[in-house]
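Chain X:
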Amino acid sequence: MKIIVFSDLHGDACGARLAARISRAEHADKTVVCGDIFGGASYKEVAEALSEVSGVQYFLRGNNDYGCYDAFLSSPAEDYAIMYHFGRTLFFTHGHRYNAFALPSFLKEGDAIVYGHTHVTRLTVQNGLFALNVGSLCRPRDGVAAYMLLDEKGARAVDLQGRTISFLPWQN
């Protein structure tokens, strides 16, 4: 199982096409976009590009996404997604409501929260939980455009050249 995660495209159609290419090249079983998908006038182009991502598609609403855009997406946008893989619960969200400092009550030790919103890539363990911030593919605030891969080994943040910039194993 391989899950690829993007966040904070902010209406960048080139970024959405890049996300689709990366998702297909990585042969992702599931692709999650953790919000702030839209912004600007290219919402149709962004949605069309994202319809080409690999595997099961999860589109999550960010603080800049509104329900009026949902009809353009190939899968309905949700506020969050919950999955069980790699022996743990994975909670995907944008990060403006839930994040490493504002956790949903059902997560327990060893589970993971995966989010964006800050545009800064950061993989940590806090109070026994994996706090995984994907950063931003299009507007990084830490200077590194990134996406995340989750598999049976752990969480890996990857730059646009395909280099691992951070890795956090599940057995931490």
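Chain Y:
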Amino acid sequence: MADLRAQHRGVRKSIRRRVKRVVKSTSFIQGEEVAVFEKNLARYLGAKHVIGCASGTDALQIALMALDLQPGDEVIIPAFTFVSAIEVTTILGLKPVLVDINPDTFTLDPLQVKQAVTPRTKAIIATHLFGQCCDMTSMMEIAEQNGLFVIEDACQAIGSEYILREGVGELQLGPFTYNYTCTPQGIRKMAGAVGHIGCFSFFPTKNLGCYGDGGALCTQLDDLADKIRKIASHGASPKYFHTYVGLNSRLDTIQAAVLNAHLPRLNRYNRRRQEIARYYDRSFVSCMQLKVPGRSPHSTHTFHQYCLLCRSERERNALRFHLESLNIPSMVYYPLPLHLQEAYANLNYREGDFPVAESTCRRILAIPVHPWLSKKQIRYIRRNVLNFFE
């Protein structure tokens, strides 16, 4: 599903040079490469502040901690996503409130988010799944109407663009005002830089990955950025003076050096993913047994994963077995929705509560879309997927 060796070959000289400099400096924690990466990523995202941390999961936990939520406060989360969002919400004593997803884009359904808001609701975790942004205009409008925070889980969507609005004028979303002029593309913001806090993961197989765990948060708000930075370093600044209860969650210097080598190449990586996805679309759109990934009119798609939907779980599993027999990898993201996971049985959700998420888990299959696939490999994948149905 990924080719990290091929990725490394294209950037190894830059990484070696940067890592050698880190080792020589011995500044392994909070070294110069971390500050450089935070500055570079902030510029790339169009964000005022970026703060590195130890993982995408930590980024979500730090975001919730920075908002001063109290035990029992409710946080709206999609029922279909990776476990991190519900995990950190539960750890902090908050109440996860799950909602169903849009069947085409796999992201939060705004109508169901609106219906899930109660007086105890304090935040929405808006997950940009598989590389495509959810409807952030709706999320921010719901938040503004109800006094909520919006945390963008952009761990799978770095480099995607959210299209706010076309035309001329001023747009107010929560505490942020956007002035814009008429362009063919409308006003765009990078995934993670629209809500109150954006969270990123640099797990090795992400579109922007390091050589271990790593993460970051971004925000436009000065006070929130200062608090996030302190929480990520034991709640302290200066050292040994602890303002907040915090974590030991810092992006280490060697991982920042790796990320600094990859960041200038991120757009090129994403364009290649998009090219492969377009080829798959053309190949599979006429296959009646498959549904290609839907596209949101509000977002570009950077295809952390390219996910097909089969007609049934049985057919999906048979297709996966067929591909495996031909040395074609595939993955099920995700085999079980959050409300049916044993760890969260105490939330008292039942099978049937979120039918779109449940159906998606039974039918979804991801095929390789990473930038280092050769034309021969892509054609081989296409041919054998279609051969299965023919």
